[in-house]
Amino acid sequence: MAKKKSSKSKPTASRPAQPYQVVLREPGGTTLTATVVDRVLYPRALAWNRLLASDKGRQDNQQEEVVSWRAHAHKAILDLASSGLVTQSQVEKFISAAATSGIVEVTIPWETENKGWAARIFPWEELLALATKEERIKNKIKHFTVVRVLGGVPRKTPTNHGALFAVTNAADALGFDYHTEYAAIKAALSLQIPIKKVDALSELSTTRCRLLHLVSDYHEDEESGGSGGEPAKVEPVQQNPMRVAEALAQTGAEMIVYSACYTGRRLAPLTVAHGVKYALGFHGMVVDTAIPVFFGAFYKVWEKSQNVLDAFRAGLAANDLLQRPDDLGVITLWSSVSLIATTTAPPRPTSRQVSASTIPTSTATAKSIPKADLLKALPVTCALEETFNYSLLHNSRGGLFKTFAITKIRAGEIPPLEVIISLDTGMDRPAECRFYATLPVEADRQQDLASQVMLPLGGQMLRQRGESLLGTLQITIFCGTTRIFHRLQSIILLPCDEWRDDETGRHLLPSFVFPRDPAVREVITTAQPFLRALSDHPHAGFDGYQSSFHPSTSRAVVMQTRAFWSAMQLALRLDYVNPPPTYIRRSQRLRTPEEILRARRGTCIELALFLAACWEHVGIHSVVFLTKNHAFAGCWLEEQARRKFLTGLDGLIAHASFAGGLPAAKTDIGGVQSKIKEPWMFAEDYHLTLIREAIEQGSLLPLETTFIPKQRSYTDAVIDAENALIELTPENFDGMLDVQTAREKGVTPLAIIYQGIVA
Q: Where are the domains of the chain?
């Protein structure tokens, strides 16, 4: 009996590559046509998705690198168009026209899901915005909008029924905060929009509605985890995207909105391919608190004008007014029909225009919101961390809240907000933060409150070195004299020397590098004779990259690091010891250099941090390598090599892509979410490739620091660390932290109160 073929439809590499045309058009009629082959475009799409998710933020504060990003984006569009026999002058003309109009429509043909996959995951929104940015600045056009059209798809007649807000039970169990989002949408629409909870999106096939808004835990199948490929905490119902799109199309909806990560790449275009006129989804990750403002403005304009493009631009403009507009990520609008006319379109509305189009009354005549309505008009999103660590607070990286924001979903004047945060452990007087905030008259505005919470750092309870404490956090918000929010919740306060080896705290490891610790000065004094002996220079000193005692900077740095190594190994005789016990998953208590020196012992990571502290004290730029269950130190042998590594885009682009066939389409393919997006943290697999190249070129020196207590030679330590990085798999690579960059970005050593040796 013949085996039945699987009904799953995924792009595969088995079929011959067929070219197709992607057409870029702006409202003035200027077009750009590229002939695309998926096998050729896919590596570029993969590379740019990953770079934009992981590395773009590194250079935002450096003008020369901003220019570099624009130039590379410009070249990416030129390379894409060159396959369609388009000249450079035509590309320049199109970019100039797009920079003037501020809108581009990208048309991708539809035949089967296997064809056009690379173009559908390509980050058109971000690359076109970058490529046109320089000219848009000259034209004083801040905003840029990209619309995606799926060409050649069937269209169904939409139903005249109302709207539905659907939530999967798995998303609810995972703790997705959709209540503020629903409140904003409900306030924006005059029609009724009930909530319906389902186990699987396909259950909605029997529902009839014109508008379907979905909050889900969407992912592809059993091969992937939650959104973005991370393992799901609650196992969701497995859903095939082709079947989901087909089932949802049966609702007769004219527009389906997916409020979930990674739905804009595959599920949204599949939905349009099955006959739905419009579909919205997120190209990558999105922060929950950014969603209500966008959709509040979007639906308000959509209901008034029935123009999806105007609504989309209004939502983006409202999002631009937020304190952190990048939290929305990239939201994609897919359509089965063209949304721009061949005439010059007006620029995307400004904040003033958005206010006028979304609020029925002007700011001058807006009435005050009655006290009885303040609670509904000002929903608060508040999610606390389970534990609180001093390093997060010390570096102004939050620590108390996952999300804490207030959204204004109704127009009208309101009194100032008073926010009171109190943390009490019973051991000291409560640490309290009190601040005031204001919201404008307009609706669809949001205030991020988490970034304004600054608890006093001087409290003994925040810098204690004992064990974890159970504290009580009290949060109260008043609007005038009306209390609109109150929560009392327990939170675990970790000892200040406890480092979280997870996504919330791993990047703050440089705060545990203490270059001014008294033990560092003692090691420098002990290492001085070793340096003079190694350099055969009676006046050799620890002068970092100045290299006053040797003509070669890299050789001088090697001698200095070798002198520290010899002092710790031969004179101070440091031994190895397991870390102190901790009672929180993926965390470790870290001893200071003084504690290590007094006890004459340390763990692998403590010895690495000790060496890094010594190097930083004398001006040598250190790094710390993190792998699964291990850590070791390294340093840059030349300052120029470090700068090139940090800012060089050419190497990143080359290594972020890979050669090979077209993988199966999955929500996490085409742009893996960065493990930690901080300028000093390099945690991607292509970063590992660049690290290996830097070592091979002799600009980066790794050292296996456990060879100090093992009484192994300095040379053996270098060879072992190099081999470990060569053999290391991406799955076991947690990242490399550049300590100097962390310092430049404000990550400083902790102010720890010394309480004696921790065994």
A: 20-151, 163-330, 371-496, 509-656+673-744
